[in-house]
Design goal:
Radius of gyration: 23 Å
Shape: globular
Number of helices: 11
Helix content: 10-25%
Distance between the termini: 56 Å
Length: 540
C-alpha cells in the first residue's frame, strides 16, 4: 500500500546515480512540487546527484525561457513571475551535478539543463518520442528492447550521430540490426530505479486518477517498468480521496504499483498545461462553443496554413505539430469544416481543435483521449492520412532539421515517428526568417528580405531524411512564397506565390538548385485575400 509523504521526504528517497523515469507533456504529468524539493535537497546537501533522466515528451515551460540561457545558479526564480522556470528545468536550477545523463525526445523547454548540455556538463541524447514512450512497455514486459525502422537515416541512426546531442554523450542507446535482409534500429531496454509521476487524485490506497489531466500520459507504463525493474514509484497529486470512492475505470495507475504519494500543498504545482491551470474542455468535462476560439491574424502565417489546409480530404485523420502547423486547426474551424476531418496530436488527442502553444498537446473538445502509447501505435502503423509539421532548415536532398539549430538544442519530439509512417507529410514554414512581408489583394509583397536562410545547402542535423522517404509517400514543403514537392527524392518547385519574382524572391534565397516542375503554377490567389471561404472546393 502506498505511503503518503511530503515532497521533501520524497526527494530523500531518490538514491544517487538513479535512473529516473518521467511521463507527461508540457506541465501535464509533471511533479513540480517534488522536483523543487529535489532541487532544494541537492542545493543544501549535494544529494541526490548524478541522476540519469529519461523522458518521452517535452516537459517544461516555454514561458520566458530565453532568460535561462547563461543560468545564474545563485538566483532561484520567483514562481509567480518566472513562468519559464517550471518543469524539468527545475532540476538544473541548483547547478550542474544533479542530472549528469539525460535522454528525451524533446529538451528545448528545459532551459537550465539545455545550457549544461551545451557546456558538455550533461550527457545528452535525443530519441524519437514514440520510441521512448513505447520502450517503457518493452521494459515493463521484460523484453530486450524495441525494434523499428523509425530513425533510419536520421541523426538517431548510429551511422549518423546515434542520437547524441553533444560531445560528452558516449553511451550507445541505439543499434543497427538486420532482419531478413532489411535494416532496423534496435533500442535496448534499461533498468529504471525511480518513476516520478503526477496524477490529479489519489485515494487512500494510492490508486491514481487523471481526472483533470488533458493528457492521459504513459504513467502506467513508466510505473510498471520501474516496479518490474525493482525500483520505486512516486506520484504527486492535487487531491486525496477516500478509498473505494473513485470509479475503477478512472484509475490510470493502480495503487499496487505506487510506493509513495505526495499531495501537493500548492495547486500551482499541478497545472494542466503550460498556459492553463485547468481548462475543463481539455479534459472532457465540458464542450465549449468553438466560435469562441479566436481566428489567427491575416498575415503570411495564415496564408501558409490555408495552403496546407488545401491538401485535406474529407474523412482524413491528420496530425498537427507545434507552432504554425497547430494554427491550421483554426483555419479549418474558421472555414467551418471541423466535422469533415479529424485532427489529432501525438499526445493522444483525437478530434476537437488542438491547442497551440503554450498549451500544445491539449485540445478543445476532444472526441477521444488516447494514451500516447496507443496514439503512437496508430501513427507508426500508418494510420494517419496526413501530418503538418514545422520547418527548421531544409536542404536539397529534402532533409529537414528541427532538432538542433546551431547551439540551440531542441530534439525531434514525435517528428521522426510521424514522418516515417504517414502517407502525406507537409512541412510548413516561411521561406526566409525575419522577412517583412505584405499580404493582400490576392498577392504577396516582400517589403524587406529576411536575414535567416532556412533552405540551405546542407542541414545541421537530419531530423527527416528525405532520401529515406518511402516511394509511395507524398512530401510537400509549403511556404508563403513557394511550394516544393519531393519527387524521386529531389526537391522540385511546383508553385510560387502571385506577386513575387521567381529568381529574386525564391531561387536566389535557396542554398541549393531545385528541380523546377514543367507545370509550375501560381498558388491560389484567393488565399492571399483577407476573407477566403474557399476550403470546401479542395476537400472533395
Amino acid at each position: 500500500m502506498a505511503k503518503f509523504v511530503t515532497a521533501a521526504e520524497a526527494a530523500k528517497l531518490i538514491p544517487d546515480g538513479a535512473t529516473v523515469g518521467l511521463a507527461g507533456m508540457g506541465l501535464s504529468g509533471w511533479a513540480e512540487e517534488i522536483a523543487c524539493a529535489i532541487r532544494d535537497s541537492f542545493r543544501e546537501t549535494g544529494h541526490p546527484c548524478n541522476l540519469n533522466l529519461k523522458q518521452g515528451s517535452a516537459m517544461g515551460d516555454w514561458g520566458y525561457g530565453n532568460q535561462f540561457v547563461g543560468w545564474d545558479r545563485n538566483r532561484l526564480p520567483e514562481p509567480d513571475k518566472d513562468h519559464g522556470a517550471r518543469g524539468v528545468t527545475r532540476l538544473g536550477e541548483a547547478g550542474p551535478g544533479l542530472v549528469t545523463k539525460w535522454s528525451s525526445a524533446h529538451i528545448g523547454s528545459a532551459f537550465t539543463l539545455c545550457e549544461y548540455a551545451r557546456q558538455n556538463k550533461v550527457e545528452t541524447h535525443c530519441l524519437p518520442q514514440g520510441v521512448i514512450i513505447n520502450l517503457w512497455r518493452e521494459i515493463a514486459a521484460g523484453r530486450p528492447g524495441l525494434i523499428t525502422k523509425t530513425g533510419l537515416g536520421t541523426f538517431v541512426d548510429p551511422r549518423v550521430e546515434g542520437g547524441r546531442m553533444n560531445e560528452c554523450a558516449k553511451d550507445e542507446l541505439v543499434k543497427l540490426i538486420e532482419i531478413d535482409g532489411e535494416e532496423y534500429l534496435f533500442y535496448p531496454s534499461f533498468k529504471c530505479d525511480v518513476a516520478l509521476l503526477r496524477g490529479t487524485i489519489a485515494d487512500e490506497n494510492g490508486n491514481i486518477s487523471f481526472e483533470h489531466e488533458s493528457v492521459v500520459n504513459e504513467g502506467f507504463s513508466v510505473a510498471t517498468a520501474t516496479k518490474n525493474s525493482g525500483g520505486i514509484v512516486i506520484v504527486q497529486v492535487e487531491y486525496l480521496a477516500k478509498k473505494e470512492t473513485l470509479n475503477p475505470k478512472a484509475i490510470k495507475i493502480p495503487g499496487t504499483l505506487v510506493d509513495y504519494v505526495v499531495v501537493a500543498k500548492d495547486p500551482k504545482s499541478c497545472w494542466q498545461a503550460e498556459g492553463t491551470y485547468w481548462e475543463p474542455s481539455y479534459s472532457g468535462h465540458i464542450r465549449i462553443p468553438l466560435n469562441s476560439i479566436e481566428p489567427i491574424p491575416f498575415d503570411e502565417r495564415k496564408v501558409v496554413c490555408r495552403r496546407c489546409a488545401m491538401e485535406l480530404k474529407k474523412g482524413d485523420l491528420i496530425n498537427l505539430g507545434v507552432g504554425m502547423p497547430a494554427d491550421m486547426a483554426k483555419v479549418v474551424a474558421e472555414e467551418g469544416y471541423l466535422n469533415d476531418v479529424t485532427m489529432s496530436t501525438e499526445s493522444g488527442m483525437v478530434g476537437g481543435v488542438p491547442s497551440a502553444l503554450p498549451s500544445f498537446g491539449s485540445a478543445y473538445n476532444p472526441e477521444c483521449i488516447l494514451t500516447p502509447n496507443e496514439m503512437f501505435d496508430l501513427i507508426s502503423g500508418g494510420g494517419l492520412d496526413m501530418t503538418v509539421l514545422g520547418i527548421g532548415e531544409v536542404d536539397g536532398d529534402g532533409n529537414n532539421n528541427v532538432s538542433r539549430m546551431g547551439k540551440r538544442l531542441t530534439g525531434p519530439g514525435g517528428f521522426i515517428d510521424i514522418t516515417r509512417a504517414t502517407k502525406k507529410v507537409i512541412f510548413a514554414g516561411t521561406l526566409m526568417g525575419k522577412a517583412q512581408l505584405k499580404v493582400g489583394d490576392g498577392k504577396l509583397e516582400i517589403v524587406e528580405e529576411g536575414t535567416i536562410q532556412k533552405f540551405v545547402e546542407k542541414v545541421g542535423q537530419i531530423t527527416f531524411a528525405g532520401q529515406y522517404a518511402p516511394e509511395d509517400q507524398e512530401v510537400l514543403y509549403i511556404t508563403e512564397r513557394a511550394v516544393f514537392k519531393l519527387i524521386n527524392h529531389k526537391m522540385t518547385l511546383i508553385e510560387i506565390a502571385p506577386g513575387i519574382d521567381l529568381q529574386k524572391d525564391v531561387l536566389d534565397r535557396l542554398g541549393f538548385k531545385p528541380e523546377i516542375s514543367p507545370d509550375l503554377k501560381l498558388m491560389d490567389e484567393e488565399i492571399f485575400r483577407e476573407k477566403w471561404g474557399g476550403l470546401g472546393k479542395y476537400l472533395d
